[in-house]
Design a protein that fits this description.
Layout lengths: L1 E2 L14 H12 L2 E3 L2 E4 L30 E5 L13 E11 L9 E6 L5 E7 L2 E6 L2 E5 L2 E13 L4 H15 L8 E4 L5 E4 L1 E8 L2 E2 L5 E15 L5 E3 L15
Parallel strand pairs: 1-12, 4-5
Antiparallel strand pairs: 2-3, 3-4, 5-10, 6-9, 7-8, 9-16, 10-15, 11-12, 13-15, 14-15
Length: about 250
């Protein structure tokens, strides 16, 4: 189910947290998990071999001739570690999380739905109008709005370093174009999908000489997600079941 955040829903929604956006960036790029690590298949970029020497101390140990299932992807912060000395590779770094009050939603609630165990209620508002509802409702406050920025770096080093770096950059930029893109699909805690707008800046060259014989080619590309984060729990409310009109000082 795709959640439309522009109105108050009548069914419960889940929560989204920072880690959900991190995972969404991986998956929107096309990343897949193998043995607990993310990889990406990019046209024109051959996957690197598994490390067998000094590099194996930092990640999976392979035997000579074993090839990774795709280009390794790593997150430059948090618990997940990427494999250093392995090229080509893609590194994702969460740069900032900034409050965005200018996008605070006009609605006060994410949803207002019948609470678990609620029973139907009928109220005779007038001789010609009957109102139907529930004995109890569950309401959840609207999420807080933030701008979350990620820097996506593509790195390669061999005689085709520039060619491979540009192929990976093309994949990233086509996934997150500067405008008119498909946005970022994020799954909440109950499996529903929320879609958020993405803006992009770059690319910026990261090319540098490693030594006299080898060169590294790379680019960075920054995306900013117009995100929202759920920071409050749902609560229970009881609806009004009658209307009482009062007369004050004879005024009617």
């Amino acid at each position: 189910m795709v959640v439309d955040g522009t109105y108050v829903r009548t069914e419960p929604t889940g929560d989204v947290w920072i880690a959900d956006y991190d995972q969404a960036v991986y998956e929107t790029l096309g990343g897949f998990v193998s043995n607990g690590k993310y990889y990406l298949q990019v046209d024109g970029v051959p996957p690197p071999p598994f490390p067998v020497g000094r590099e194996a101390e930092y990640g999976e140990i392979g035997v000579l001739g074993d090839v990774m299932p795709g280009v390794p992807m790593g997150f430059a912060a948090g618990d997940e570690r990427f494999l250093p000395f392995i090229y080509p590779m893609i590194v994702i770094r969460r740069e900032s999380i900034i409050d965005a009050p200018q996008r605070w939603p006009s609605r006060a609630l994410s949803y207002r739905a019948p609470a678990p165990g609620a029973t139907p209620v009928t109220v005779n508002y007038s001789p010609t109008i009957t109102l139907e509802g529930w004995s109890k409702y569950q309401e959840k406050p609207a999420p807080h709005t933030y701008d979350i920025s990620y820097m996506i770096s593509v790195l390669a080093t061999d005689e085709k370093a520039e060619q491979h770096a540009q192929a990976m950059l093309k994949h990233v930029m086509r996934t997150f174009p500067p405008r008119d893109g498909d946005g970022l699909s994020v799954k909440d805690s109950i499996g529903d999908t929320r879609l958020y707008e993405v803006f992009a800046e770059g690319p910026v060259s990261l090319r540098e000489a490693l030594d006299l014989l080898d060169q590294q080619a790379g680019y960075s590309y920054t995306i900013t997600v117009q995100a929202e984060i759920d920071l409050r729990d749902p609560y229970l409310t009881s609806p009004a079941t009658s209307l009482v009109f009062g007369w004050n000082n004879g005024v009617n």
